[in-house]
Every structure is written in structure tokens, then in C-alpha cells.
């Protein structure tokens, strides 16, 4: 295979030449300078004996040098893994941090050939661990080479619409994360600049850096909307907020559009697959689409419980096949066999693909509660609750029950200026979904606890439900 990853990124940087591609405060790094750093770090890694297939762990901040180090590790053909808490160290043999990168940059600036091999693992992306222990999703060099981000001719329409707004893409957290790096590469391909966000965060970072785009979790989006209602900041530079991490209820999406304007892109994807679907602001003009995650540009099947294949509008588990999908989990053959099936990835999400082509998510295949032998999808209960005008957010967990096997427990964030009636919400769910789905308790909370991944922390909610039940 020619043009192995990350050759496309190298070519983008070469094409940028003297244009700024990475900005950190007063520091502006051109394409030529970034390429020089990549070559130097790659030379240093090779002088250390790093060969194709060797594991390189990266514990790096958000800097131009960090971006160069990531790309240099790919250039030498290494198996690249971000390093964070709860991740087992066996995925790498060489650990690189910011201090070591500074030493690697002292190596000579020599031409470097991309040495990745198609079947080798290029990177291990770790899931958030929100439903258990983090799993390492393994992408091969062939898979990363097939990805669309660095190739404008491969962009689906929704991505093309997003790319047009990526003049100044704000990054934070870690450049080894899938979303930050993928949309960083998309920014380079769109001719934009990757801009480092320094504290404080939203909305100040958008204003201070004149950002045109960034990624935002659902929780932070809710906070940004509240802040803009109470004390509006000048967000006129903003063109795109890519929502990731968890589904966005239609009511909250409508509110975000009202307060922030047509800047919200509602994405759906997984660590195992990359982007699956994307709903653009233009598509949101039709309010009937606000409960969807957009049209999918990848292959999708909706399968029944027996894994029978059906691409019709009925509800079922979503299976996808994407160009850059992972092919296995690191050192986990059992989970690999359960999720990666004959070239398809089992998302474990429940949903539909309508006749209009729009995908709608309705729950998690594993996020189920068994009440008197009846299956209750937590996502379905959350949708009913969040559809009530007095409810801003709703989250549902299940806990063991002596008589029914399990029971449903709901946590509700009231809409501004309202006081939802728990009894009325319980009756609403019973009417919509049946008595077995009605919550045993409905607790009003100021805000949902958030895990380190930025997703709602259902483990914390379950502990809260246990505390209520034992009183």
C-alpha cells in the first residue's frame, strides 16, 4: 500500500510551508517548522532503537512538540498509545514524556521515510471505561491510511460542512485522544490552524483565542448555554461546536441552537469506529431531525436479537463498517470476538435508520434493566423524561430488587425556573412505556456527576440510588 499513514499528514504540512499550522499563545509554528520537528524526533526514536511494530507510550501535554512527537512515532512505524490512569502499561515498551521529547528534538534533521506496515497496529485508543475497565481499540496502519480526515476528496457532505468552519480549531486535554487528533488533522486538510486552549475554559477560551471551532461534551455544552443566558460573551467568531461523548436530547439541542446560533454539530461515533454519523446545523432547520444524529456516510445494519441483518426502519442493534475502524481489543480475545464480527463492529447501541436515511439512537444494548422479566432500556426512559417541559436532563440506572429482580431509578435536572413533580414523571413513563418501566424513585438533582471522560457518571448515580434505597 502506497502513501502509508501518516504520509498524508506529512504532505499536508509540506504544502502549508510557511503558513501557521499550530498556535500556542504568542507562538506560531509553521508547516515547515512542524515537519522539521517531526523529522528530528523520528531520528531520535530510531537512534534509540525504536523499530516498526515497537510500542511507544506518550504522556504529553498539548503543545506543538506533542503533535510532532505523535506523528514522529507513526513515521517510524511504532504502535502508539496514550498513557493515562487505569491503562495497563504492557501496550508499550518505550515511554515518552514532554521532557524526553525536548531531548529527542536535539537529534539531526534528516529525511525520514514512513515505515509503517499495513498489518501492524498503528495506535491503541482507550475507551473511557464508563461501563467498566477501559479497553484498548487497535487500529492498523492500513485502517488509519484509509481514514478520511486528511483527504478532502473523501469527505462526506457533513464533514465538508464542518471543515469549512475549521479556520481556528481549539484543542485541549490530550492530542493522543481520537477526537482531538482526528479533527486536528481535518483542520490541517482544510487549511486551518490548530489553536491550543489555555485556562480558563469555555466561553473565555473561545473569545480569547478567536476560535471558530472546538469539541465539547454534552455537560459542558449545557454549562455554556447557561452561562450565555446569564452573562453572554462575544462568541461571534464561533462557527462549529462538535458535541461528543453522549447523546444530546432534542430539547437541549433546540435550546443550544436558540442560545448559541447555528453552530452545533451533533456527532455520533465510537472509539472502535470513529465517526458514524453527523447532524449539521443546516439539517437542524427541520425540527423533526433534532432527535437524530444525522445521516451516516458509512455502512450500517440494524440487526435483531438473533443478529439477523436488516437495514429497514425497525428498531434493533446497530452494526457499522467504517474505513478506519479498529480490528481488535488489546489483549482481550473474548471482547474482540463479541464486538468485531466478520468485518462489522457491533456498537451495542439500539436505534433505527428511517426511510429518510436519518439515524436515531434509542438506547444501549447493555444499558438494560430487567424488571419482572421485562426488559427496560434506560435510554427509552430517559427520552420520555427529558421530553417533559420541566425536565432539562434525565438519567436512569437500575439496582437489584428483592421482588422484581431490578428496579428503575431516575435522576432529573429541572429546567430553569421549574419544579418537576416526581409522581407526575413516574406516571408519564408508565403511560408511555408501561408500568414495568416506571421509576421506583425520581430524584431531583442540580447537575449530573461527570466522570473523567466528560460523560455522565452512572456509577456515581447508582451509588446515590443505593444510598436512597438503604435509608
From TrEMBL:
Residue stretches making up the AMP-dependent synthetase/ligase domain: 17-105, 111-330
Pfam families reported in the protein's UniProt record: AMP-binding, AMP-binding_C
Domain AMP-binding enzyme C-terminal: residue ranges: 381-455
Superkingdom to which the source organism belongs: Bacteria
PROSITE patterns: AMP_BINDING (PS00455)
Name used for this protein in its record: AMP-binding protein
Amino acid at each position: 500500500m502506497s502513501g502509508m499513514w501518516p504520509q498524508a499528514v506529512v504532505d499536508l504540512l509540506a504544502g502549508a510551508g510557511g503558513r501557521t499550522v499550530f498556535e500556542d499563545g504568542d507562538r506560531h509554528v509553521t508547516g515547515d517548522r512542524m515537519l522539521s520537528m517531526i523529522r528530528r524526533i523520528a531520528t531520535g526514536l530510531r537512534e534509540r532503537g525504536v523499530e516498526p511494530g515497537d510500542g511507544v507510550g506518550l504522556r504529553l501535554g498539548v503543545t506543538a512538540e506533542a503533535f510532532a512527537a505523535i506523528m514522529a512515532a507513526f513515521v517510524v512505524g511504532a504502535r502508539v498509545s496514550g498513557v493515562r490512569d487505569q491503562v495497563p502499561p504492557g501496550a508499550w515498551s518505550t515511554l515518552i514524556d514532554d521532557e524526553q521529547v525536548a531531548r529527542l528534538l536535539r537529534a539531526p534533521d534528516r529525511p525520514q521515510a514512513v515505515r509503517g506496515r499495513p498489518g501492524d497496529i498503528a495506535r491503541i485508543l482507550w475507551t473511557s471505561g464508563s461501563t467498566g475497565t477501559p479497553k484498548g481499540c487497535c487500529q492498523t496502519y492500513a485502517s488509519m491510511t484509509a481514514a478520511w480526515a486528511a483527504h478532502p476528496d473523501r469527505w462526506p457532505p457533513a464533514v465538508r460542512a464542518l471543515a469549512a468552519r475549521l479556520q481556528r480549531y481549539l484543542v485541549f486535554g490530550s492530542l493522543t485522544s481520537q477526537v482531538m487528533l482526528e479533527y486536528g488533522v481535518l483542520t490541517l486538510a482544510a487549511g486551518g490552524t490548530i489553536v491550543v486552549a489555555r485556562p480558563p475554559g469555555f466561553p473565555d477560551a473561545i473569545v480569547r483565542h478567536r476560535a471558530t471551532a472546538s469539541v465539547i461534551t454534552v455537560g459542558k455544552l449545557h454549562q455554556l448555554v447557561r452561562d450565555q443566558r446569564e452573562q453572554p460573551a462575544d462568541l461571534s467568531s464561533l462557527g462549529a461546536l462538535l458535541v461528543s461523548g453522549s447523546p444530546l436530547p432534542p430539547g437541549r439541542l433546540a435550546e443550544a441552537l436558540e442560545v448559541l446560533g447555528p453552530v452545533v454539530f451533533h456527532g455520533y461515533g465510537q472509539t472502535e469506529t470513529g465517526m458514524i454519523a453527523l447532524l449539521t446545523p443546516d439539517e437542524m432547520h427541520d425540527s423533526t431531525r433534532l432527535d437524530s444524529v444525522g445521516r451516516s456516510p458509512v455502512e450500517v445494519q440494524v440487526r435483531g436479537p438473533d443478529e439477523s441483518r436488516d437495514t429497514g426502519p425497525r428498531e434493533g442493534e446497530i452494526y457499522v463498517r467504517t474505513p478506519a475502524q479498529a480490528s481488535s481489543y488489546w489483549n482481550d480475545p473474548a471482547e474482540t470476538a463479541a464486538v468485531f464480527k466478520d468485518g462489522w463492529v457491533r456498537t451495542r447501541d439500539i436505534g433505527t435508520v428511517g426511510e429518510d436515511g436519518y439515524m436515531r439512537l434509542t438506547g444501549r444494548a447493555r444499558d438494560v434493566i430487567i424488571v419482572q422479566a421485562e426488559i427496560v432500556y434506560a435510554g427509552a426512559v430517559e427520552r420520555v423524561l427529558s421530553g417533559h417541559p420541566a425536565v432539562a436532563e434525565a438519567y436512569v440506572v437500575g439496582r437489584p430488587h428483592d421482588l422484581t429482580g431490578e428496579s428503575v431509578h431516575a435522576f432529573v435536572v429541572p429546567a430553569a425556573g421549574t419544579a418537576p413533580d416526581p409522581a407526575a414523571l413516574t406516571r408519564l413513563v408508565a403511560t408511555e412505556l408501561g408500568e414495568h418501566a416506571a421509576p421506583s424513585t425520581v430524584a431531583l438533582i442540580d447537575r449530573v456527576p461527570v466522570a473523567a471522560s466528560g460523560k455522565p457518571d452512572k456509577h456515581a448515580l447508582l451509588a446515590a440510588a443505593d444510598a436512597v434505597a438503604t435509608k
